[in-house]
Design brief:
Structural class: alpha/beta
Shape: elongated
Distance between the termini: 76 Å
Length: 489
């Protein structure tokens, strides 16, 4: 009897152990199910938060595009001046910042410079209307509750963009993101053509090859012309067209002014007669009052190119090396770099350094040969340039400058320019040599001289007025400043 009692007790203990194990397993399963449910909820919340953050980020980036596409906000009075540079820098040029680096945006989070709120019916339509709203492309993600633009917290920056959105999630998630913008500080180009030394040589067939439409000509040294009539007469009645000067009987232009530091010489003047120049040609400007040429500092433009453009070293054969790394057999021709497929194929800023990648000197300047059929961008060459035309060029649709003493987009005349070989900025720290008949829309600057390789060579320039305000196609007007992005909630 005692034996059976012992066996029963052992079986009872085993059964109790099994029940305890089963209970523990049940608790573990319940815990795992609970954790899995919490993980699913957390994952769902994280996904919803990510959608809200992406929406807020996208709203902020759309504000950035307003600075680059003024047409998008032209019809909104409160926003139409957002891109307008209302300050002047130390040189008197239009700028977002004053000489001390203080931004033209001075508002606060409580009293911003720009404030759009969903509670205001007109603001809500402006922001979120599915057909006409500024953020209509984001309506499938949610809506923008509030948008503010006000002063930056860091000196030298442009503004703070503060966006609050509500994502179309279940439940809806609100997100507020702040970021600050920096402004491109490349100095403007205030003239169509700027020449540090002389323009042309006093030899028949080697005179100035340059003619200018819609802007100013600045020459630090002497200007040599074949005939005095090559300088267009400044007239407010001059037609605004893309017609080149060799197709008209009398050269006239509404904006052309010539500022010459030295003398103006004419190689084909009538014997015994003094050439008669129009009143818009101003001679003998140096040393007083001086010909003020726009300066692009070597180190500064180099930094801009490395951050926002493309940077190349050069060898003595004119081959280019990306990222400034010169390796034998790895060089590429300038034709491979300076070529656009057609109008709109913007190549941005391309910087060609000196032979030793230090500041330009007379003994370290390479030679870049630009001879492609069409280039659209900014060519900054720390050396000499041989500019040659090939092909018939491209037709480009542009805007003329505004009438004198006005600066509003609405009064600028659309013009079709044909046969353009270059659309943008050509800057050389050395000389520019012209071979053939080249047409350019934008601006040209030479630290040295501009000459031609022979009779019949010409460079005809139509000035891009946007350059006078420091707006360069292919470079950002503003950019997100690193280390300034943050989320409030």
């Amino acid at each position: 009897m005692s034996y059976f009692n012992i066996e029963d007790r052992q079986q009872g203990i085993a059964l109790l152990g099994a029940m305890i194990v089963a209970l523990i397993l049940s608790l573990l399963c319940a815990t795992l199910f609970n954790l899995a449910g919490q993980e699913a909820v957390s994952a769902g919340l994280a996904s919803q938060a990510a959608v809200a953050q992406q929406l807020a980020d996208a709203a902020g980036e759309l504000v950035v595009t307003w600075f680059h596409s003024p047409q998008a906000i032209a019809a909104v009075p409160r926003l139409s001046t957002l891109r307008e540079k209302r300050n002047r820098d130390k040189d008197g040029a239009p700028s977002f910042l004053d000489p001390s680096g203080r931004s033209q945006f001075v508002g606060t989070a409580d009293q911003p410079d720009v404030w759009l709120q969903i509670g205001n019916l007109s603001d809500n339509r402006l922001l979120n209307d599915p057909e006409t709203g500024m953020f209509r492309t984001l309506t499938h993600l949610g809506q923008v509750e509030e948008l503010k633009v006000y002063a930056p917290s860091k000196p030298g920056l442009l503004c703070t963009i503060d966006t609050t959105v509500v994502a179309n999630t279940n439940p809806p998630v609100r997100q507020s993101i702040l970021m600050q913008l920096g402004a491109m500080d490349l100095p403007p180009l205030g003239a169509a053509v700027q020449v540090g030394q002389h323009l042309g040589r006093f030899r028949q067939g080697a005179e100035s090859p340059v003619s200018v439409h819609w802007g100013e000509l600045k020459v630090g040294g002497d200007l040599v012309l074949a005939q005095a009539a090559e300088i267009p007469l400044k007239s407010t009645l001059a037609p605004v067209t893309g017609q080149p000067y060799d197709e008209v009987t009398q050269r006239e232009d509404r904006w052309m002014e010539g500022w010459i530091g030295g003398t103006v010489q004419v190689t084909q003047a009538s014997t015994g007669q003094t050439p008669s120049f129009p009143s818009n040609l101003h001679m003998g400007q140096n040393p007083i009052p001086g010909v003020r040429l726009d300066q692009w500092t070597y180190e500064h433009i180099k930094r801009v190119a490395k951050r926002f453009g493309r940077y190349f070293a050069i060898d003595r054969e004119g081959l280019l090396y990306p990222q400034g790394i010169v390796e034998p057999g790895r060089g590429i021709s300038a034709d491979e770099v300076f070529q656009s497929q057609g109008s709109g194929d913007q190549q941005g800023l391309i910087f060609i350094d000196t032979l030793d990648q230090t500041a330009p000197r007379p003994d370290n300047l390479g030679i870049v040969r630009l001879q492609g059929p069409y280039f659209e961008g900014m060519a900054v060459v720390q050396g000499h340039v041989m500019l040659t035309s090939s092909g018939s060029g491209q037709s480009v649709q542009v805007l003329s400058p505004p009438p004198m003493a006005q600066d509003h987009e609405i009064v600028r005349t659309p013009v079709q320019l044909s046969g353009m070989h270059f659309n943008g900025v050509l800057y050389a720290s050395g000389d520019i040599m012209i071979a053939g008949r080249v047409r350019l829309y934008g601006a040209v600057t030479a630290g040295g001289a501009i000459t031609s390789t022979g009779s019949g060579s010409s460079l005809e320039v139509w000035y891009d007025h946007d350059l006078s305000r420091g707006f360069y196609r292919g470079l950002p007007v503003v950019y997100r400043a690193s280390g300034t992005w943050m989320t409030r909630y």
